[in-house]
Amino acid sequence: MGKTLKRSAAFAALARALASGARGGPSLGTRLAALPRMIRATTKGEYDGGLRLALMTAATAYIVSPIDLLPEIPLAIFGLADDAVMITWLAGSVLAETDRFLEWEARRSSVIPGGLVP
Prior knowledge:
Helices cover 75% and strands 0% of the residues. It has helices spanning 2-22, 28-43, 50-64, 72-75, 77-109.
C-alpha cells in the first residue's frame, strides 16, 4: 500500500507538470532540460538559486531515504502523508524554479555583455 500511495502522489505531480506545459508555460521536457543548466549556473554563481536548489536536494534525499520522520509501518496513512507532502512540495518547487530560471535565462540572453563606459 505504501508504494502505491507514493506512486499516485508522483503521478499527480507529473500530471500537474504536464498540465502546466499545456496551458502555455514551458513543457515538462523544456523544464527537465533546464535543470542541469540551472545547477551549472548556480554553482558558477551566475544564478541565485542556491538555497532553493539545496532545499529541493534535501527534499529529494528525504523522499528516497528509507528513514522517515513519520514511519509508514506503525502509522499507516499518516506515515505516507509526509512523503506525499514532500513530493507535492518538490514538484511545485521544481516547476516554479525552472520557470523562474527560464525567464532569467531569456532575459540574460538579451543583454550584451560588456562594461560601463565613463
